[in-house]
Design goal:
- This protein has 20 helices and 13 strands.
- The chain is mainly α.
- The protein has four domains: about 170 residues, Rossmann fold; about 110 residues, Glutamyl-tRNA Synthetase, Domain 3 (Glutamyl-tRNA Synthetase, domain 3); about 40 residues, Orthogonal Bundle (Helicase, Ruva Protein, domain 3); about 100 residues, Orthogonal Bundle (Arc Repressor Mutant, subunit A).
- A hairpin with a 3-residue loop joins strand 5 and strand 6.
- It starts with a strand and ends with a helix.
- The mean pLDDT is about 95.
- The structure holds glutamic acid.
C-alpha cells in the first residue's frame, strides 16, 4: 500500500457534531496505526452556509479530544493551503478541463428557471426532477443552445455554472471498505454543479481536486456521503486520476438511543443529552457539550470508538494507545450505531476511577472554586481518593462532596431522625463527641475503633449512633466510610459539626412531634 494519508474535512456550517468527531477519530486512529498522516481540511466553499465561529469551534474541539492533525490550517504541511477558500484559484482549470474533454458543460439557467423546471416536470412519482440526461435538453446550457448563442452569452457576461455531464446507461462501481462492492446506475445521478457562478467550486469539485493533490489514500467519512461517491468516481475518471483514486470507507450512521432515526442536534436538545463535544453558543442557538457536562475527553473518545467499531473481544476500556493498536477499518460495522448516553457515563466513570489523584483534583477544582472554596492540593486529593467511585461525570462531584468543603446546612434523612434519634441519649452523645475530639491519632481506623468501643461501653446500639454521626458530619446517610470522611475533615471541624448536629436533631425531632 502506498503511504497512508487521510483527511477529516468538516465544513464550518455550525458546531462539530459528535458524528464528525467520530469520523475524525477513525481517520486519526487509522493514520496512527499505519504510520500515516492525518490531515484536517476546512471545506468552506459554500459561503451561504458558512457560520462565524464554526472553524474555531472545530479546531478547539479537536484539541480537547486530543485528535491533533499532522497537517492543518494551524500546522501547514507540504500540501497547503488547508482551507478551501484559500485554494479558490486552483479549481477553475479542472472544471474547464472537463468542459474541454466533453465531460462537463456550461449552464446558464437562473434560479427562477430551475424552479420552474422542477415545478413543470414534477410528477407524483418524481416530485423533485433532476437536472440530468432527461431534462438538460429543455434547459439553457451549452448542450442545448447553439455554439454561437453560447459564445454570445459568454461575451455578454451572462452568469453560468459548470455542470458534470453524466450519460445514462452506465453502471458505476466502486469498492467500499465497510460495504464491499457498491454500484450505482448513472441514471440515478444528476448533472451536479461543479463550479458556481462566482467561480467557487462546489463540494464535489473541490473535494476531488483536493483529495487528489493532497494525495489522500483513504476517504473515511460518514455514510451520508455514499450517494455522492459515484459522482466522485466519475470525476476521478474524467480527470484522468482514477488510478490514484483513494479507497472509500463510509461509516455507519449514529442513531438515537431507540434506533429510530439519526441522532440530531434537535433531538439532543429535546432530551437534554450532549451531541457536541463542547458547548456551542451563537446568537440563535445554544447546545450543551460533553466537556461542560463533565466528561473526560479520553472517556468520550473511548465511547465514540465503539459507536460503529468493535475490537472483537470483550474488552471495552481502551486508552489512546490501545485504540491505535486494536483499530482496524475492516471491523467497522455496516449497521447504524445507537447512541446510549448511559454507556457514555459508564465509560466516564471508569476513566474517573483510573485517573490519578493529582489530575482528578485538577479536574474537579473548578467546580469547588465556583462554589467559593479554595482547598489545598493535598486536601482536594484526599477527597478525590475517597470519592472517586461516587460520580459518573465531573459535574456530580460537588453535589456528592460538598460537605468536605462547607458546613452542613441540611439533613437529607428526616425519617431516621424522627424514628431513631433519642434525645435521652444526648448526654452520652456529647461524651462521644468529646471522645472523638480527644483522639490524638485522627485516622479512620482509630476513630472507628474508639467510636465502636464507646458504643459498647455505653450500651448503645450502632443504629442509635452511627447514622447520626454521619448525618451531623455530612448531612446525608449516603456516602463512603464515615470514619474516612471524619479523618479528612479533621477533629475540630468534626467536633463542631457533631455538636451542632445533635442540637439540630433535638429540634427537628421536637418539631416533627408537634407537626
Ligand atoms: N465537507 C464534507 C463534510 O462536511 C466532507 C465530506 C467528505 O469527507 O468528503 O462532511
Amino acid at each position: 500500500m502506498s503511504k497512508v494519508r487521510v483527511r477529516f474535512a468538516p465544513s464550518p456550517t455550525g458546531p462539530l457534531h459528535i458524528g464528525g468527531v467520530r469520523t475524525a477519530l477513525y481517520n486519526y486512529l487509522f493514520a496512527r496505526k499505519t504510520g500515516g498522516t492525518y490531515i484536517l481540511r476546512i471545506e468552506d466553499t459554500d459561503r451561504t452556509r458558512y457560520v462565524e465561529g464554526a472553524e474555531k469551534y472545530i479546531l478547539e474541539s479537536l484539541k480537547w479530544c486530543g485528535l491533533n492533525p499532522d497537517e492543518s490550517v494551524e500546522k501547514e504541511g507540504d500540501y497547503g493551503p488547508y482551507r478551501q477558500s484559500d485554494r479558490k484559484g486552483m479549481y477553475v482549470q479542472y472544471a474547464e478541463q472537463l468542459v474541454e474533454s466533453g465531460h462537463a458543460y456550461y449552464a446558464f439557467d437562473t434560479p427562477e428557471e430551475l424552479d420552474k423546471m422542477r415545478e413543470d416536470l414534477k410528477t407524483p412519482e418524481d416530485p423533485s426532477p433532476k437536472y440530468n440526461y432527461a431534462t438538460r435538453g429543455k434547459m439553457k446550457n451549452s448542450l442545448s443552445l447553439s455554439k454561437e448563442t453560447v459564445q454570445k452569452m459568454m461575451n455578454e457576461g451572462v452568469a453560468y455554472v459548470i455542470r458534470l455531464l453524466v450519460e445514462p446507461g452506465q453502471e458505476i462501481h466502486f469498492n467500499d471498505i465497510v460495504r464491499g462492492a457498491v454500484s450505482f446506475k448513472s441514471e440515478e445521478l444528476d448533472d451536479k454543479v461543479l463550479l458556481k457562478t462566482d467561480k467557487m467550486p462546489t463540494y464535489h469539485m473541490a473535494n476531488i481536486v483536493d483529495d487528489h493533490f493532497m494525495e489522500i489514500s483513504h476517504v473515511i467519512r460518514g455514510e451520508e456521503w455514499l450517494p455522492s461517491t459515484p459522482t466522485h468516481v466519475l470525476l476521478y475518471r474524467f480527470l484522468g486520476w482514477e488510478d490514484t483514486m483513494p479507497a472509500f470507507c463510509h461509516l455507519p450512521l449514529i442513531l438515537k438511543p431507540d434506533g429510530k432515526g439519526k441522532l440530531s442536534k434537535r433531538y439532543g436538545a429535546k432530551v437534554g443529552i450532549p451531541v457536541f463535544p463542547m458547548n456551542w453558543e451563537s446568537d440563535t442557538d445554544f447546545f450543551i457539550g460533553f466537556k461542560e457536562q463533565g466528561f473526560l475527553p479520553e472517556a468520550m473518545i473511548n465511547f465514540l470508538a465503539f459507536l460503529g467499531w468493535n475490537p472483537g473481544t470483550e474488552q471495552e476500556i481502551f486508552n489512546n494507545e490501545d485504540l491505535i493498536q486494536a483499530f482496524d477499518l475492516e471491523r467497522i460495522n455496516k449497521s447504524g450505531a445507537r447512541f446510549d448516553i448511559q454507556k457514555a457515563r459508564w465509560f466516564n466513570q471508569q476513566y474517573i476511577m483510573q485517573t490519578n489523584d493529582a489530575r482528578l483534583a485538577e479536574l474537579v477544582r473548578p467546580y469547588v472554586e465556583a462554589e467559593g472554596h479554595k482547598p489545598s492540593e493535598e486536601y482536594l486529593q484526599k477527597v478525590c481518593v475517597l470519592m472517586k467511585e461516587r460520580f459518573e461525570v465531573l459535574t456530580e462531584f460537588w453535589g456528592n462532596s460538598k460537605y468536605f468543603f462547607e458546613d452542613v446546612s441540611e439533613y437529607d434523612n428526616q425519617k431516621v431522625i424522627r424514628k431513631k434519634w433519642k434525645p435521652e441519649n444526648r448526654e452520652k452523645m456529647h461524651d462521644l463527641k468529646s471522645t472523638v475530639n480527644r483522639l490524638r491519632i485522627f485516622t479512620a481506623e482509630n476513630i472507628e475503633e474508639h467510636v465502636k468501643k464507646f458504643i459498647e461501653e455505653n450500651e448503645l446500639s450502632f443504629g442509635e449512633v452511627l447514622p447520626f454521626i454521619r448525618l451531623a458530619v455530612s448531612g446525608t446517610t449516603k456516602g463512603p466510610s464515615i470514619f474516612e470522611i471524619m479523618s479528612i475533615i479533621g477533629e475540630d471541624e468534626v467536633a463542631k459539626r457533631l455538636e451542632k448536629g445533635f442540637e439540630d436533631f433535638d429540634k427537628i425531632k421536637e418539631s416533627l412531634k408537634n407537626s
